[in-house]
Amino acid sequence: MLWPTIVSFALVSLCLARVYQATNQESFSSCPSSFSQVGDKCLLVGGGWKNWFEGDRYCRTLNAGMLSIRNQTEFSSLINSYLPEFAAYELELWTSGNSLGDAQTNYFWQSTGKEATYLPWATGEPKKANGECLSLTANFSMETGEVVLDEHRLTVRNCSLWGTVICETQVTQFKTELCLNPNAFHEAQIPV
After folding, report:
1. Based on the structure, what is the number of domains in the chain?
2. Where is the signal peptide (predicted)?
3. 9 and 40: one domain?
4. Same domain, 65 and 13
């Protein structure tokens, strides 16, 4: 008679321990497949050579936008440290920056709709006569026998020229939830 009581107690204890473990797990963050987490953004370089408009469309098919740059810390610490690792030989990368439809020399980030207040220009830029779209461009040298890229900086380019695109999306926060049914329970990762 004691045996069924012990087994029942053990099963209930095991379930309660598992419930406690699942409910006490901290949340975590993740990027969509193929994207890399860089600070609080998820970045992806690729999609082949595209003009600025095709690049914007490509990023949108991934539920993302082209890269926007908020401040110097994000640019220097995160983006330019990411590019040598994930875009080692990419000289020009389209960003969402543009002055399309603006008669002045104001630039906006297409992905956020906000005016671009931090613009890390390359030497001699901006040259409005070159176009209306912003590209991250790196100078290179081959003095050592291999290609060495300088830090990427913004340049103004004609939107119809070809370049590689850099897409961004936000990091998704998840938390663990416990799903119970009559026969078992499951842990589910729920976006917050």
Report:
1. 2
2. 1-17
3. no
4. no
For residue 7, what pLDDT band results from cuts at 50, 70 and 90? low
CA-to-CA distance for 57 and 86, rounded, in angstroms? 21
Residue 137 has pLDDT above 50, yes or no: yes
The span from the CA of 121 to the CA of 154, in Å, is 5
* Residue 133 shares a structural domain with residue 93: yes
Same domain (yes/no): 63, 112: yes
Task: Say whether both 10 and 91 belong to one domain.
Answer: no
Residue 148: pLDDT over 80:
no
**Contacts for 149-154: CB closer than 8 Å, 24+ residues apart:** 149/84, 149/88, 149/89, 149/91, 151/80, 152/79, 152/80, 152/83, 152/93, 153/120, 153/121, 153/122, 153/123, 153/125, 154/69, 154/95, 154/97, 154/119, 154/120, 154/121, 154/122, 154/125, 154/126
pLDDT digits (tens, 9 = 90+) for 41-91: 999 998 899 999 999 999 999 999 999 999 999 998 888 888 888 887 788
Cα–Cα distances in Å, from 31 out to 57, 62, 77? 20, 12, 19
Q: How far is CA 14 from CA 10, 33, 129, 167, in A?
A: 6, 35, 71, 45
